[in-house]
Design a protein that fits this description.
By secondary structure, the protein is α/β, with parallel strands linked by helices. It folds into 2 domains: 227 residues, Lambda Exonuclease, Chain A; 50 residues, no CATH class. It is built from 10 helices and 13 strands. A 5-stranded mixed β-sheet has the order 4-7-8-9-13, with helices on both faces. A hairpin with a 2-residue loop joins β5 and β6.
Length: 302
């Protein structure tokens, strides 16, 4: 089974995709953890599943977070993904597409199917700009799913801010508590909160995700933090499908893309490539199971 993620990783480096498919990660990035947790929640239709998934990843194999207190950071982000998942699920029901049979094998989209037949993909970002929008529209994550299914995709971007000291302060999980009434607000419409209002994170309150989202709505906090754009299937769809088929046939390749070894951060498999040893020789554990979930039938449109 080849997924959208496989194609994305393969495009960066075929050898990295081969190793990623074969070996358990020693650690996972925070970005991966957030996206994987939300994908789990949307697959199950349960926001709490996002929180549980992130804590599961934090325990094993562990999440790379620069923080003086890793546990508090993990709890903080687990509540964040729960709130984000609750928002997306509240927008409209989503269904996990069933695998699609292609000439080169079975394909599993990572985007979801909406009730009106379009796809939906959630993007988490620290800020949303015109350049980021174009990047997401043009990305393989969008092109592959829309080309194979021949369905338009709604790209929903959630602006969650940057990490600061292991935490991610934003109205999605940060608010202010009134000293007397204990009322919690996430932002003022005019001016700023005075010093009497205490800064609080959602994980330190008893508020449920939907109640927190209700406060965000009342305070107008979604403005500038939620963006949705619709991308049609590629105009050169046949050409894209040929490129996808070529990549699929190369899956399992050991071809190395050296320009990607230090892109954004050093590739986790760099020690193996630089010493001409296999990950297994360096202590990596091979994967031995695949998690299956219920899926809905999704066939390409004509």
């Amino acid at each position: 089974m080849i997924t959208t993620d496989d194609f994305v990783t393969h495009d960066i480096c075929p050898r990295s995709q081969t190793y990623t498919a074969r070996y358990q990660p020693l650690r996972v990035s925070l970005n991966f953890s957030l996206n994987e947790s939300i994908h789990t929640a949307l697959s199950l239709g349960n926001p709490i599943a996002a929180s549980e998934k992130l804590m599961e990843l934090a325990a094993r194999p562990g999440i790379e977070i620069e923080s003086p207190n890793l546990y508090d950071s993990a709890i903080h982000h687990s509540r964040l993904v729960e709130t984000l998942s609750a928002y997306v699920i509240a927008v409209g029901p989503l269904t996990v597409p069933a695998p699609i049979s292609c000439d080169w094998g079975d394909f599993q989209p990572r985007s979801f199917l909406t009730e009106d037949g379009r796809l939906r993909r959630v993007v988490l970002c620290d800020r949303w700009t015109s350049d980021r929008e174009l990047m997401e529209r043009f990305s393989w994550r969008t092109a592959i799913d829309t080309a194979i299914t021949n369905r338009p995709m709604i790209i929903t971007a959630l602006v969650i801010g940057a990490v600061k000291g292991g935490f991610r302060p934003s109205p999605w999980n940060q608010g202010y508590e009134h000293p007397i009434t204990k009322e919690i607000r996430v932002q003022r419409r005019v001016g700023k909160f005075n010093d009497n209002w205490a800064l609080v994170y959602r994980e330190n309150t008893s508020m449920k995700a939907l109640n927190w989202l209700r406060v965000m709505q009342e305070d107008g906090a979604f403005e500038g933090r939620v963006f949705s754009v619709t991308q049609a299937p590629p105009v050169n769809r046949e050409e894209i499908l040929e490129q996808i088929a070529a990549m699929a046939k190369e899956m399992g390749s050991m071809r190395q893309t050296r320009s990607s070894c230090y892109r954004f951060r050093p590739c986790p498999f760099l020690p193996a490539c630089s010493t001409a040893k296999s990950p297994a020789q360096l202590g990596w554990i091979e994967k031995d199971s695949v998690v299956n979930s219920d899926s809905a039938i999704l066939t390409p449109t004509i």
